[in-house]
Structures are given as C-alpha cells and as structure tokens.
Design brief:
The chain is an alpha/beta fold and about 325 residues long. It is built from 14 helices and eleven strands. The strands form two sheets. Strands 4, 5, 6, 7, 8, 9, 10 and 11 form an eight-stranded mixed β-sheet that branches. InterPro entries: ArsR-like_HTH (IPR011991), HTH_ArsR_DNA-bd_dom (IPR001845), Methyltransf_11 (IPR013216), Methyltransf_Superfamily (IPR050508), SAM-dependent_MTases_sf (IPR029063), WH-like_DNA-bd_sf (IPR036388), WH_DNA-bd_sf (IPR036390).
Length: about 325
C-alpha cells in the first residue's frame, strides 16, 4: 500500500506525466529529455530521481550516460511497474502538449540514429553481417518464426541483440522483450529501431553475455542470433542463457553451420568456423537444455536454426553459481 501511494504521488505532476509518456516510446537520457521538454537539466534530474526512487522509471547506467525507460519488471515493486505502464498507456495521444513532445522526440531519435550511423562508418562497422555474408536474412527469420506460436511467448531475452532487429521481429508475439549487447554504438541503433510504433514493450541495455545482470529463471524465450561464432567461450554463453531461462522455456540459437571458409573467418574476425548440429547439441545438453531437431537454411554459408527447451529439473550447481 505504501509503495503504491508513493508511486501515485510521484506521478501526480504534469512534467512527470510527460516523462512517462516519453518513456513509453523508448529509453532517453537526461540531455535528450531536456531537448524534448525544453526544461533545465537540474529540474528534470530532480523529477527523474523521484520517479526512479518510486519505481515509475528504470535507470540504466552506460558509461557517462544514464538511460531512463519504463521499468522492465526485472527488479523493483511490481505494483509501481504496473502503474507506470498503465499510466503511460492511458495518456491521450491527442493532448496538445504530449503531441508536441512526440514530435520533438521523433526529431531527437532521428538525430540519434544519424549520429550512431556516423560512428559506425568511422569505425568501419556500418554493415549488417547477414547482408555482408550474402545470407538470406528473411528466410532465416521466417524459419525462426515458424518454430514459435503467433502469440503468448511471455518474456523474451535477445542476447547479442545488435541493432535490435530480432526484438522488432518478435515484438508482436511477446509480452516484453529485452536485448543485451556489449556495444554502445549498436545499442544506440537498437534504441532508435525500438522507438517505432508497437515496440514500447521492448528495450535494450548494455551487458556482458557471460555475466548478465538478470535474475535466474526470468525469461520464457531466449534467442542468440549469429552470436556464438564470435564468442570466446560458447559454452559459457549458453550456460548463462540457461541460467536466465525458466523451466520449460525455450532457447533458439541461429548460427553458422560448420564450414571451411578461412577467408570468411579472417575477413570478419570470427572466433569459430560455425558449429555442427552435434556440437550444439552437446553444448545444450551440458547445460540442462534439451536440443530439438535443428532446421538448416541453405545459403552460401548454411545456417542452423537450433531450438531447445530448458529441463524442468533444477539447474546444475555450477550454473547457479554464475549468478552470484
């Protein structure tokens, strides 16, 4: 009761409702909020601090920036989380002030995307790996979708989310989506992508896939799309994915099949030359995951789409220890 009353009091102010409406569109930093609302940083910082303490917003630190978004539900008071999302959904789209904020937010998001793209060009990373390898991205996405029901997938975690494309693809089927990536430049592009209509329930954050700041057994579906061939420790990455997966939950790995293309490994700095179905099944089985028959997508470099389920049994002790 006390926490809910505190959250209600924290929301009952015009600027804070405007911040909630913006947070419903995606994550913003304080500087961006200042640009959109036309208010000073000290003033908005006080509002954001109060709202974060009340559980209405989630604050995620990345380097020099802190990003604010609607709470994801990983931590904090469920009542405040529900209130924040309900209030954001109930705010009228035709309100003149909120409509003006939305127009300004669109401008800020466009500028963010432009800046992120320029950073990628300067670093020589302004390319999509599927396209660069001449791989059929649409066919791979369709094969993945064919493995899943049309709705009711619960909570999704996309490990190594990159530009957030898989979150966008699966958004209509999940209750909430979270992407983890180590690259701040990638996350900037992902946040711009997720500012689109119907994607407010998806978010991204910076994190290490070997030690994610997430609770045990907190996701119904985990995806790893073209991640393992870069991983120094594929077994460790799968172990961490298993840790956050609920009993009976699903893990889907999209990965290059084993190949002998040394030119590809050298050009794109891959750590591994793909994986065979047997290798992936062994990695999955060692981590309380029951491998299902993989699908093969034909391409110049064939791609495996490998589904698995987490056993209903308790995780091995060594996996639980990873969360400590």
């Amino acid at each position: 009761m006390d926490s809910l009353l505190a959250a209600l009091r924290a929301a009952a102010e015009p600027t804070r409702l405007r911040l909630l409406a913006l947070a419903g569109r995606g994550a913003f930093c304080v500087t961006e909020f200042c640009e959109i609302l036309g208010q000073s940083q000290p003033r908005l910082s006080r509002h954001l601090k109060l709202m974060t303490e009340a559980g209405l917003l989630e604050r995620v630190r990345e380097g020099a920036n802190a990003w604010y978004a609607l709470p994801s539900g990983d931590a904090g008071d469920p009542a405040a989380t529900g209130l924040a999302r309900d209030l954001a959904a109930r705010l009228p789209d035709d309100d003149a002030v909120l409509a003006a904020d939305a127009r300004q937010a669109a401008r800020v998001l466009a500028e963010r995307a432009r800046a992120a793209s320029e950073t990628f060009r300067r670093q020589g990373a302004d390319w999509d790996e599927m396209r660069a390898l001449d791989l059929p991205a649409a066919a791979v996405e369709q094969r993945l979708l064919d493995l899943l029901p049309d709705h009711g997938l619960g909570r999704l975690l996309d490990i190594g989310t990159g530009t957030g494309r898989l979150l966008e693809v699966l958004a209509p089927r999940v209750a909430a989506g979270l992407g983890i990536d180590a690259s701040k430049a990638m996350l900037a592009l992902a946040r711009t992508r997720l500012a689109g209509e119907g994607l407010g329930h998806c978010s991204v954050r910076q994190g290490d896939m070997y030690r994610m700041p997430l609770a045990d057994a907190s996701f119904d579906l985990v995806t790893m799309h073209m991640v393992l061939h870069y991983a120094e420790d594929p077994a460790g990455a799968i172990a961490e994915a298993a840790r956050v997966l609920r009993p009976g939950g699903r893990l889907i790995i999209v990965e290059l099949a084993a190949h002998d293309r040394a030119d590809v490994i050298e050009r794109f700095a891959h750590r591994w030359s793909g994986f065979s179905p047997a290798q992936l099944a062994a990695l999955l089985g060692a981590n309380a995951l029951l491998a299902e028959p993989p699908a093969l997508v034909d391409a110049p470099l064939p791609i495996l789409v490998c589904p698995a389920r987490r056993s209903a049994e308790a995780l091995p002790a060594r996996l639980s220890a990873l969360a400590v």
